[in-house]
Amino acid sequence: MITSERMAAVDRNAEALGVPRKQLMESSGNAVARAIHRLADPEASVAVVAGRGNNGGDALVAARFLAEYDVTVHLLGRPETIATDIARENWAALEAAEYDTETVTDSADLALGDPDVVVDAMLGTGVTGALREPEATAATAINRTDATVVAVDVPSGVDADTGDSTGVAVDADSVVTFHDDKPGLASVDADVTVAEIGIPEAAERFTGPGDLLALGRPEQSHKGDFGEVLVVGGGPYTGAPALTARAALRAGADLVRVACPESIAREVQSYSESLILRPYHGDRLAAANVDPVLDLAADHDTVVIGPGLGSHEETLAAVSDILEAYEGTAVVDADALQVVPAVETDATLICTPHQGELRKMGGETDEDWRTRTDLVVEFAAELGHVLLVKGAYDVIGDGGEHRVNRTGNPGMTVGGTGDVLAGAAGALACVLAPFEAAAVAAYANGRAGDAAVEDSGHGLVAPDLIDRLPAALWEGDE
Ligand SMILES: NC(=O)C1=CN([C@@H]2O[C@H](COP(=O)(O)OP(=O)(O)OC[C@H]3O[C@@H](n4cnc5c(N)ncnc54)[C@H](O)[C@@H]3O)[C@@H](O)[C@H]2O)[C@H](O)CC1
Ligand SMILES: [K+]
């Protein structure tokens, strides 16, 4: 099963892998035509009803694969209003080759006749709300025919994710859907065929530019759309919590506060004026700080706990107590990771170990790490949390799904890059589901590292990544 949002991401990733959408459209159209070959005898009459989006584009392609049939293509709307280049190109190809086409600008003008087959390609995953005109009237007209109705991707008017239809929807006999089944088709009373359209498996398995689509564009978001992050870190180390907090800010967080021992507050502040500190009593996290930190945490959308905390027994006990009582979303990094397996919590944790830390948590690693994503998925399931295991290939798992990130470079083994990643994950977890936040953080962090190396060669330091996070998250790669 794949949601429309994930499908759009995978589609974008496929393009980045060298398989552009026009190629996918060609495969989709071909699959629809093959379904018609199975359903109808040669010379049967086929009415293709195409909308102005890519769903319509699929059917315009299908028409070219139906030479044995008597095909008429009805385009709903003027050709100039076709929404995408690839659909428009396929319309132009039909026109140039003098196919039997007509454009319907007024729903009253749709003359379907009495076809043997109707191809419903008005709307697919791009639908929002109830069908408008001329689609609504066309759907009623399609439902009134005695034809066998073949829907492209989803019956028009049906939401691919929920199966809901707010108004009239096409009553299809059969649905040819692409790449993977859609959740909304479960409630549709039709034969559903899933057609492979040539999307490489890597487009789903590896993070790519499509994974960033969920973030939206910066100009669409406003201050307050992201969220507030609390970094709980520092003690024996002062640089780590500062890096984490600065990374969270650059990854979009509206506000980031650092809870750290008062003994190091001045030094943490010295890294950046923009840091807001909430110092607690003492020189390392300990039992007396648990309640104040929990009170602070309750006022934030996410918490990042671990960077620079050290592994003093008292500190680790305090981390356990905090995680046990906390109920929100937290990124757990560095020394704090080792307490996670024994912690019983209602919180949603994103754990970011490297392989050494993973072993310390009781997880299994393997020399042939790339092919052992199953180890991450299983251990994540055992923990009941999201795991982001850092390495040459980062593996992100949540017990069900997994994703692999291959951005980044050997220069990133330098200290502090993990602190940056944790901060980015904390910010992204304010706006994305935990698994997505981890995957996008890994992708963007690696991309920032790759950009840094490209700009200044090797000799990378962690702050180089922070400055490049906004571009890595919000700028296209073409
Ligand atoms: N990898 C893939 O996902 C592939 C998908 N293919 C096909 O593309 C469609 C989705 O295409 P898209 O252009 O995004 O959307 P639609 O064609 O479904 O519709 C967009 C079109 O419709 C207008 N619109 C939206 N809501 C309504 C409404 N309620 N009433 C009327 N009109 C509406 C909107 O303004 C747009 O103009 C997917 O389903 C597949 O069939 C590919 O070709 C292969 C790869
Ligand atoms: K459709």
Automatic annotation (TrEMBL):
It comes from the Archaea. Keywords: ATP-binding, Isomerase, Lyase, Metal-binding, Multifunctional enzyme, NAD, NADP, Nucleotide-binding, Potassium. Binds 1 potassium ion per subunit. K(+) binds at residues 55, 120, 156. Pfam families: Carb_kinase, YjeF_N. It catalyses: (6R)-NADHX = (6S)-NADHX; (6S)-NADHX + ADP = AMP + phosphate + NADH + H(+); (6S)-NADPHX + ADP = AMP + phosphate + NADPH + H(+); (6R)-NADPHX = (6S)-NADPHX. InterPro entries: CARKD, Nnr, Ribokinase-like, YjeF_N_dom, YjeF_N_dom_sf. (6S)-NADPHX binds at residues 54-58, 124-130, 153, 240, 308, 354, 419. Residues 7-205 form the YjeF N-terminal domain. GO terms for molecular function: ADP-dependent NAD(P)H-hydrate dehydratase activity; ATP binding; metal ion binding; NAD(P)HX epimerase activity. GO terms for biological process: metabolite repair; nicotinamide nucleotide metabolic process. Coiled coil: none annotated. Residues 207-476 form the YjeF C-terminal domain. Its EC number is 4.2.1.136, 5.1.99.6. Its cofactor is Mg(2+); K(+). AMP binds at residue 418. PROSITE patterns: YJEF_C_3, YJEF_N. Catalyzes the epimerization of the S- and R-forms of NAD(P)HX, a damaged form of NAD(P)H that is a result of enzymatic or heat-dependent hydration. This is a prerequisite for the S-specific NAD(P)H-hydrate dehydratase to allow the repair of both epimers of NAD(P)HX. Catalyzes the dehydration of the S-form of NAD(P)HX at the expense of ADP, which is converted to AMP. Together with NAD(P)HX epimerase, which catalyzes the epimerization of the S- and R-forms, the enzyme allows the repair of both epimers of NAD(P)HX, a damaged form of NAD(P)H that is a result of enzymatic or heat-dependent hydration. Homotetramer. Belongs to the NnrD/CARKD family. In the N-terminal section; belongs to the NnrE/AIBP family. This is Bifunctional NAD(P)H-hydrate repair enzyme. It comes from Halobellus clavatus. The lineage of its organism: Archaea, Methanobacteriati, Methanobacteriota, Stenosarchaea group, Halobacteria. The gene is nnrD.
